[in-house]
Amino acid sequence: MATQLTHLPEVERLSPACIRILGGNPGKFTLQGTNTYLVGTGPQRLLIDTGEGKPSWIAALKRVLEQEKASISAAIITHWHHDHTGGIPQLAAACGLGTTPILVHKHQPDAGQLEIRDGQRFLVEGASLTAVHTPGHTTDHVVLLFEEEDAMFTGDNVLGHGTAVFEDLAAYTASLEKMGRLFGGRAYPGHGPVVQDGPAKVAEYIRHRQQREEQVVQRLRSRNDDPGASATVQGDGAGNAWTVMQLVRSIYSDVPESLHPAAAGGVVQILRKLEKEGKVTVSDDGERWRLVPSSRSAL
Q1: Is the keyword Transcription regulation assigned to this protein (predicted)?
Q2: Three-state SS for 27?
Q3: Disulfide-capable partner of 161 in 130, 177, 187, 192 (CB 3.0 to 4.6 Å)?
Q4: Which CATH number do you get for residue 45?
């Protein structure tokens, strides 16, 4: 997470039917910026995601459309986060077909948008996309299978650099397992460079989540030597009670502290999953976590 990011050009043709246009919004969590994709080879193209609506993005998109002698027939939104939906108003204002507005498709749509059904197909010359509902990063998240390339637009479930955050770990893991079975080629992520072996990256993500869960379990097994631990140790098994941030500081010791709040979200999801499985318990104030006695030898 602390390594230097690969430079990505503002606009890059990734294949005969796919052009990536960066959202112009680089940052700690958006990496080089949000990837938006213009897909197809004919006069009508599909647009995947809209960035935040930055002026540089809409200018680059208009320039590419002029060069390609093409227009956008529909925009497909992978999920609701602002760095993927923020450009919808600018897109409508700048790239509509005369009096005909661009159709915006999204699972769990907002007002004025069209619903994306699981398995729905989007067709333009040179590109056949199938939407698959893959919750976890968000409840409305979809990925898009790119039939002609045996590829997948992975949204934010799989990134080109580092790992992704998620709202629901169990749903996210199930979605990753589903995704890995659906394609054999590239992954076009919501952020970061193209992943050449998409299924291998999905498998890597699954292993990573399993390793993080095991790290949490191992810390809960061990004595808590954090300087603030004395305030969290009560009752039997003294030394084995941990707050979320104590777990984060121990597990993510090689990660800049500025990223610890994001990591804490993942740790909370792991703890909630283990709690549902009856493997951990939390104190009445919701601050201190420990293994339940029957799980200390079973995990």
Answers
A1: no
A2: strand
A3: 192
A4: 3.60.15.10
In a domain? residue 6: no
Catalytic choice (83, 118, 236, 254) = 83
| pLDDT tens digit sequence for 92-118 | 988 765 556 899 999 999 999 999 999
* C-alpha span between 102 and 87 (Å, rounded): 12
**CA R_g for the chain:** 22
Identity (one letter) of the amino acid at 228? G
Q: Which domain holds residue 58?
A: 11-209
Q: Sign (positive/negative) of CA torsion 59, 61, 64, 66?
A: negative
Structure tokens at 51: 């960035």
The CA distances from residue 226 to 84, 213, 229, 239, 240, in Å, are 39, 20, 5, 10, 11
Integer Cα distance of 261 and 216 in angstroms: 16
* Cβ atoms 38, 44 nearer than 8 A: no
Q: Are strands 114-115 and 103-106 parallel, antiparallel or unpaired?
A: parallel
Q: Give the pLDDT confidence score for residue 39 in this predicted structure.
A: 98
Q: Residue 246's domain is classified under what CATH number?
A: 1.10.10.10
Token pair for residue 243? 């707050």
Concatenate the DSSP letters of all residues of 84-153 into one string: HHTTHHHHHHHH-BTTBPPEEEESS--TT-EEPPTT-EEEETTEEEEEEE--SSSTT-EEEEEGGGTEEE
Q: Is 83 a catalytic residue?
A: yes
